[in-house]
Fold each of these.
Amino acid sequence: MRILLIGEYSNVHWTLAEGLRTLGHEVTVVSDGDCWKDYPRDIDLRRRSLGWIDTARYLFDIQRTLPRLRDYDVVQLINPVFLDLRAERILPYYKRLRKQNDKLFLGSFGIDKPWVEEGLKPDTFRYSDFYLNGQRRLNPFTYQMEADWLRGSKGTLFDQIADDCDGIIASLYENLVCCRQHYADKLHFIPFPINLENITPKEEHPEYSGLRFFIGIQRDRSIYKGTDIMLRALERLQKTYPDRMEIVKAESVPFPTYQNMMNHSDILLDQLYSYTPGMNGLLAMAKGLVLVGGGEEEHYQSIGETELRPIINVCPSEDDVVAQIESRLLTHPDDIRQLSLDSVAYIRRHHDHIRIAQQFLKVWQGTSNTIPPSEQ
């Protein structure tokens, strides 16, 4: 098959492409590298700034690239906003892609209209980006999501593409639950791909006998992601266990630097308000780090896992993060090696990029319904 993957989110499309190419398919990835993360791509569509010169150059690059994006058997979009333009300007490009190719699928890999719609209902999840302990989480990021996806052009664009496309593929439990309410007839569920062949395992650090806790901080999203609470929890623990732990902080650094810092750590803290590990957490687990973050039972059920429980699941509160790390890791350091081995086994079982690529192919070819039995 000839496959076109447009847009990038935490290296999902490039990793999927690696699996598809191993299976003998022709794949083209078009993206901006997910902004400052600068992930690999075959065709670079990057908008360097919002200035009029760079905007004109970006529009020219799109027009120059579009004739090359034709005659593919499958096109998959990372999100309805697959170009770095205002949402109301994207639909004509979608229509052209739709016209000059065969099948077209939409990814639901994070924030989109169903995510916001269902998240704003207090009973969809026990906690979410929008609710905690029955109370609305009010911060600039949640306000902006509501404005963009429920009252703005992003939501309109989602409706137009979701109604027209051949299928929607969700990769997080939360996306599955949210999209199921509106698009069950065209919804599929496939976990994120991880290429274990390209993974650098975490390294031992004989110069330091304690545990290294790694936390990545995006300055403008810390409150939304919960890394502010996780960092405070680590700092509390460090006062109690100054000789047993070290905090390693990565603040909006390029991906190669980020990976190198991760490689010299033991434990990753990520996604406080999630039921499900994201690509960052999965990458850490593939390296053998222990993940502290989203690992609710609903997530394990969605992937059919009945044995492995390698994630230190935490409720979204500073006290619970402290309690879980203290009881599961700091006072039981001998358990960490087994958790590390279980983490790698978990990735190999559920996220191997070649098996994931095979699942995508079955959905694209119309030979598989990939909704978990418990969600049908």
Amino acid sequence: MDPELLLDWFDEHARRLPWREREPSANRGWRVLVSEIMLQQTPVNRVLPVYQEWMQRWPKPSSLASAGQGDVLRAWGKLGYPRRALRLHQTATVIAAEHGDVVPSDVDTLLSLPGIGAYTARAVAAFAYDKRAPVVDTNVRRVVARAVHGAGDSGPPSTTRDMADVERLLPEDDARAARMSAALMELGALVCVARSPRCSSCPLVETCAWQRAGCPEYTGASKPVQRYVGTDRHVRGLLLDVLRESPDPVEKARLDAVWAVDGQRDRCLHSLLEDGLVEQGADGRFALPGEHPTVNGK
């Protein structure tokens, strides 16, 4: 794979996204961290409006750290997986208290923050601080599978193998390596897509191993199709919607009305309580964390 071909394509075709703006590095770390947390399992078009409002309201870690958890969950809206919002709040609190309100730049320190895993730590190091750190997501794995290995898709993930694959592709120079990590991801998102890849628009088409092999069909393990409606995640979201939209704690009857299957609804409500996304007061009513007067003495 020729890095120059990919980098030239990225320079011309990369989407103009707010977290890619070249700001002073201190603020860029926060912008990239917030975007990476929001983008986990969530498409860019859904993230953009929430991200922009979030950054206007909480432009640095300390401003988010000072917010109430209920406000944080309301601002998260319908992005899904709301535990990400509380983890980001926890992370902001640690950054504000222990790192001078600046997101760390090295992978090991980032990994020590609450809820920050290997992918997010490397993404922040690369995209915010121009570090040479292999960043591997589904899009990157698909590009490597096709362009390097000649396979129609990437198959089941393997952290060791996938990281080694990308490591070998990155230039030695930190800044160029960071740009290439972003370029690989962008190519997978815009051109080398899972279905109907736009090979005629790909900068790597002449050297792509999959093209040279005649674009064989993928015959490996299939990925399960994920449904949403009727799942516990769906029901949890419906319950949280009621609390987000209410300025006051609500009776259980209002929660019962959102889903008819009693056992599933109660199981989901219990899991929200266990996850700290909902609290129940002594009067039996439910609210977002920090917003029930009989629990918090307001």
Amino acid sequence: MSESANSATAAVLTEKVTEPLKRAFVGKDEIIDLLAVSLVAGENLFLLGPPGTAKSALVQELARRLDGQIFDYLLTRFTEPNELFGPFDIRQLRDGQLVTNTEGMLPEASFVFLDELLNANSAILNSLLMVLNERIFRRGRETIKLPLLMVVGASNRLPEDDALNALFDRFLLRVPCDNVAPEALAAVLTAGWRLDNTSDRPTGVVSVKEIRQLQRRIADVQLESVREPYVELVQRLRHAGIPISDRRAVRLQRVIAASALLCGRQEANRADFWVLRYIWNTEEQQPVLASLIQNALEKASENEMAVSHTRARQADEADPEQIGRGLSNIERQLNDGVEDTERVYLQDQVAILASRCEWVRNEQQREFLQQQVQQLWDKLGVNAK
């Protein structure tokens, strides 16, 4: 695919796939933008939210518009490998051959949606890890290279043990998926009714083959101009308590490059750092990340912002509930007792959340949060900043 064809495919993906999805799924713009970035980067996306918030429907509609085969499954603690990957072929089993019948199952899908992902048990965990990380399914002597474009996982909770942490880590980007705000409910009802009763929606607007070619062009995006500021940002995020392994730091370059491709550029710039808002491990980290990434975006030049992704140009509005959870978490740690080195780290966290309070629109909420910040400064023995 030539550079011009590559840009054309990215433009069609935006105009004919993601924009119609945004009209059909009210209040899900953020998730749809991240689905597009993850798709182009060939990375996995994790959705955190309760049932009934259109997670599965979003992936199904995306697959429909890309003419791709989807495998959609709800995991339970008792899910067996056969339910995901297919049973052994009985005919070949009689001849002593262990061959999996994958027809209609995960190994044949272009898109995979795994609901309640963190219910995965030890019987399927290792196989899932290989699927997510290497795009390979292995059973005994059998090794199958998968045609996967992306995997979307969802859960209403975050992992609580090491085995599930390894699974969660395979999802490079994470985004909340909640019910819409009350004022948007009427629009959701209208859009949902229209979607349910429209049978002639376009299909196969962009082919799976074109998406694969676009994914291969990720390696051609120039990252040299952002390498130094990216290194500085990763170091700052680590210092703020956001764990980013070297492996994840390398892979995150793919989503930065995908942001550039979706904007029709062959060179990344600082504005593409917006994708790093979505690398949190806990809900408390979300406002910290939002503040640090907003600071990084403010260093982008006018020229860089002029050709940036829409998501980079939208000032990230502070979520008072997220900030409150972050402040409460710091207070619990202080009450439990911390070492001097940990106190320095907590001071940095409070400073970040304090700056985030300024972005809270509601005056009463903002003042309440600022009072909480002052109380933490008092406990830390630091003058208000």
